[in-house]
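Hi there,

I know you've been waiting on this one. I reran it after we fixed the sequence typo, so this is the corrected version. Both the input and the resulting structure follow.
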Amino acid sequence: MQIIWLGHSGFRIELEQAVLLIDPWLTGNPMFPADRRDEAIKGATHVLLTHGHGDHSADAVAICKELGIPLVGIYDLTSFLEARDGIATIGFNKGGTVDLGGAKVTMVNASHSNTMAGENGPIAIGSEAGFMIAGGGHRTYVSGDTDIMADMQWMGELHAPDIGILAAGGHFTMDMERAAWAAKRYFNFKTVIPCHYRTFGALEQDATTMVAALPGVQVIEPQVLEAITL
């Protein structure tokens, strides 16, 4: 199994027969080298969106059209984009599980907001979400943009993920301290990968606080387009 950071909250996850692009914001992402776009999306089988904010969804439709692959996410969002842009979609909802090339993806709750730009300002488009991804010998929790939630208690007990990809930049999501607290309180991760940080000055710039707060956990600060093999 390989996890490749695309900057901000974007990831390329290769497992089973799937290559999943999660929240692949590439165009205009200050963390992503524009000349490596083809490398980032090559062979992708699905695009997954946790929610519709532009720093997660801006490239999703273009990638789906270019590669002829489906967009996967909460039904309200995928239905809207299917009708507007004519792309193939797999819409489901919280508690549901879809099989994507052998990767079993379950949608779980998140605590954030979910809008897209409209002609007269932001429009609400379903609900924000996270994913539990089972496959490749692991179960990976992709938190999406969220704060700490009491739901994390049952999510940790029921799904028992060993890898956590956690939004931890602060300002719009949990910061490193809060994400580490949630990881320690609700989960038993072996590996934690922070994201939604370093992109802008308002966000946390390193994971020092998280590393100190999670002794015994492998905290990996990802580097853009460098594969993490687990």
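Quick highlight: The mean pLDDT is 97.

Best,
R. S.
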